[in-house]
Amino acid sequence: MRLPLLCLSLISFSGFAEPINLSLKQAEDRLVLHNREILAARRAVEGATTGVTIAGQAPNPGISYSTASISPGSGIGTGALRDKRMDQIIALSQLIERGDKQELRTAVAEAAVRAAHADLADIRRQQRLAVHFAYYDLKAAIEREKLTGETASLYRKSLDVLELRQKAGDVAAVDVSRLRIEMLRAQNEARGALAEVARTRRALAYLIGFETHAEDLIADDLWPQLSDPTLESGSLGHRADMRAAAARVDTAGHARDLARSLAVRDVTVGAQIERNMAGAAPAGGVTYGVSLSFPIFARYGFGGEIARSENDYAAALEARAKILAQAELETERARTDYLAARDRLRRIESELLPSTRQVADAAEFAYVKGGMGLIDLLDARRTLRAVELDAVAARAEHAKAGAAWLAATEWETTPQP
Hints:
63% helix, 8 helices, disordered N terminus, alpha+beta, disordered C terminus
C-alpha cells in the first residue's frame, strides 16, 4: 500500500530503514511544498507584492522649525521659549507629484507582481518536469539493477555447474574461463547499476526536499502506457513563461511612461506660522505665510532616464520574441521526441523483445541438450540482456518524452492579481 503524503513527511528515524514506495503524484505533492526553487519563487512573489504598497504611497509632508532675528549682543534672553527675543517660524510643506507619477509607479509594481506570479508558475512547470525525469530515471535504474543482478546470478550458477562438469572432464578449461569472464563483466555491470540507483535516488530526493530518506526511495508507479494522443499545442501565449514575458513588457512600458513623467515638474507647497518678537503685542505678533516651489530644469531634464527606459522597453519586447521562439522550438522538439520514443518502444515491445527472448530460450534449451556450444549460448544471453536493457531505456525515454510534451504544451492557470 502506498504511503500517504503525510506519512512521507513525518517518517521517524528507527533502528532500520524500510523502502518508501513513492508514487509520482506523491512526489509532485512534495515538490510543491518543499522544492527550494519553488520556495524561492514564492519569496519573490511576496517581495513583488510589497512593492505595490510602496509604490502607491504619496510623499510624506515635512515640518520645519527655524529662528531668526537673534541679536549677537543681547542674546535671546531668559524665560520660556515663547519669551525669547527671536523670531520663531514653524513651516509645513508637501510635495505634490504631477504627471500621474504615483499611478505609474503602482502600475509598474503591479506588472512586476504579475511577472513574479508567472515566474512562479513557470518554475513549477520546470521543476515538475525535472521531477518526472528524475522519477523515471530512478525507476529505470532500479529495473537495470534488477536485470544486471539477475544476469550476474545466472552466470554465477552456470559457472558453478560448468566447473563441476570440468572436474568430470565434460568441458574444456577454456569454456570455464570464458564463462568466468562473462560473470565478472556481469558483476561489474550490476555494481554500476547499483551506483546509478543511488545517484538517481539522491537527485529525486533533492527535488522534493526528502534527502534524509533518499536511500529508501522506490519509484512505485507503472510505466506510462503506449497511446496515440492528438499532439496539438494550442496557443503558446498562455504558457507561464510567455505570461511572464508579457508582464515584463507591461512593466517596461509603464516604467517608460514613468520616466517620461519626470519631465513634468512637481510642485512643493508650504504654509508657515511666524511669531515675530517685534510685533505690537507684548508676547510678539503672529503672522502667516505660504510658499510655492518647483524645480528649474536648467542643467538636466531627465534625458538619461527616459533614454534608458526606452532601451529597457525595446529589450523587453525582444526578450518576449525570443521566449516565444524558444517555446515554439521546445514544443516542436517535444513533439518529435515523443513520436520517435513512442515508435521505438512499440517496436521493441511488440517485435524485438519477444523475438530475442524466444531465441534466448531456444539457445538455453539447445545448450542443455548438447546442440549448441558455449560461445553461441553466451552470444544469445548477451543479446537478450542488451535488448532488455534497451527496453528499459526505451520505456524511460517514452515516459520522459511524454512529460516533456505536457510541460511544453500545458500551462498553469494560477489566478493573477
